[in-house]
Specification:
alpha+beta, Ribosome_recyc_fac_dom, ribosomal large subunit binding, two-stranded antiparallel sheet, 54% helix, 15% strand, Ribosome-recycling factor, Ribosome_recyc_fac, cytoplasm
Length: 188
């Protein structure tokens, strides 16, 4: 096997790491910073009909006023499951039932709640870091396989350095995004 045949697909690794960053941005968008938003329910999935389903596929999500989100659940049998998923989500919102409508009053953010939300943001960031490190591990596994197929020691070091630099860059982006989100949450 010639040297130009042994290559690691860093574009694929970068694309997958970017995917972890996009997922993190979506999760951060769902964290509330004092105003009601339908996107705050996006990361919550409900066990419905044998599979995990987003809330917006089980009912109509509305924001009738700045401090209230309502969900009009289409199937009566799903109301309790949606309510349970919201309670267990870590958003700190206490759902109120009115028939098939679930009302989510958004409480004013106090200092304690802001600190809790920064911890939730930290958890989201850690999951993104784990996803990025998993992609890094896949890249390192590709390098090991290529070494077994005749990759030179110098090429192995080169590709390991490339993958590590890519990983460090994306972990830095996660850290910066977390820092910005925590500052936004703590802002009164």
């Amino acid at each position: 096997m010639s040297d130009d045949e042994i290559m690691i697909d860093t574009d694929d690794l970068s694309r997958r790491m970017d995917g972890a960053m996009n997922a993190l941005r979506n999760e951060f968008a769902s964290l509330r910073t004092g105003r009601a938003s339908s996107s705050m329910l996006d990361p919550i999935h409900v066990d419905a009909y044998g599979q995990m389903t987003p809330i917006n596929q089980l009912g109509t999500v509305n924001v009738p006023e700045p401090r209230m989100v309502t969900i009009n659940v289409w199937d009566k049998s799903m109301v309790s499951k949606v309510e349970k998923a919201i309670r267990q989500s870590g958003l700190g919102i206490n759902p109120q039932l009115n028939g098939t409508i679930i009302m989510l009053p958004i409480p004013e953010l106090n200092e304690e709640r802001r600190r809790e939300l920064t911890k939730v943001a930290g958890d989201y960031a850690e999951r993104a870091r784990i996803a990025i490190r998993n992609v890094r591990r896949d890249g390192m596994d590709q390098i090991k396989k290529s070494k077994a197929n005749g990759m030179s020691e110098d090429d192995q070091k080169f590709w390991e350095t490339e993958v590590q630099e890519l990983t460090d860059k994306h972990i830095g982006l996660v850290d910066k995004a977390l820092e910005n989100k925590q500052a936004e949450i703590m802002q009164v």
